[in-house]
Design a protein that fits this description.
Elements: H1 2-13, E1 20-21, E2 27-29, E3 35-37, H2 38-50, H3 62-71, H4 77-88, H5 96-102, E4 109-112, H6 118-126, H7 132-135, E5 136-140, E6 143-148, H8 157-163, E7 168-171, H9 175-178, H10 184-202
Helix pairs in contact: 2-3, 2-4
Length: 203
């Protein structure tokens, strides 16, 4: 176990490990002080707002609530509006797990498959030079390009990776692109691995 831990640390130092942050790692503190999944919380709140019945004892997912809403003949715009409002009003701090992960300085790239701001906030706290609008890149599942948040044109991730010591956060921050599509997460990871391989080949 100790040997495997040393091997992992060597791989991280060598840039061979790519941290991928999914919804399971994004937690918030509940009213009773427990750590709960942010996305389970959002799903429950969304169901309450839209008056979608949830069987007692079940923990709904955003995908399940969204499907129930759409299958009832409703438009998706209200889903996006409600979730965006819930996220905008979120008064949560990054979890200890997120803070610990983003404090590892040997990671040059973080991938988040979620649309909340908590990973970005954790990077800001641990990396004084991290600026979301400069070091955050948005990925859209229907577009193979990677875009900086303050630019509408295609962007060379390779050039940024070679010119900044500050970590880069690649995420699907747009709610409309991933609220009900779990399958696109594999694409963001695959595309990023291809990009990373290209960077290593060029360096």
């Amino acid at each position: 176990m100790i040997a495997s831990g040393r091997s992992l640390m060597r791989d991280i130092y060598a840039g061979q490990v790519l941290p991928v942050i999914g919804p399971e790692l994004v937690t918030i503190t509940s009213a009773d002080g427990q750590q709960i999944s942010l996305y389970r919380h959002l799903a429950a709140e969304l169901a309450r707002r839209l008056k979608i019945p949830i069987p007692q004892g079940e923990q709904p997912t955003l995908n399940a609530v969204t499907c129930s809403w759409l299958l009832s003949g409703n438009a998706c715009k209200e889903i996006y509006d409600e979730v965006r409002d819930l996220v905008d009003k979120l008064k949560a701090q990054p979890s200890r797990a997120l803070l610990d992960l983003t404090s590892i300085t040997d990671f040059a790239l973080f991938i988040s498959t979620t649309f909340d701001p908590l990973t970005s906030q954790a990077l800001e706290q641990n990396n004084p030079g991290f600026l979301p609008e400069q070091n955050g890149l948005d990925f859209h599942p229907n577009n193979p390009g990677i875009f900086p948040r303050n630019c509408r044109h295609h962007f060379s991730f390779t050039s940024l990776a070679h010119t900044t010591p500050t970590p880069i956060l690649l995420s699907g921050r747009k709610i409309t692109s991933n609220i009900s599509a779990d399958c696109w997460r594999s694409r963001i990871i695959c595309d990023c691995f291809l990009t990373t391989c290209a960077i290593k080949t060029c360096s």
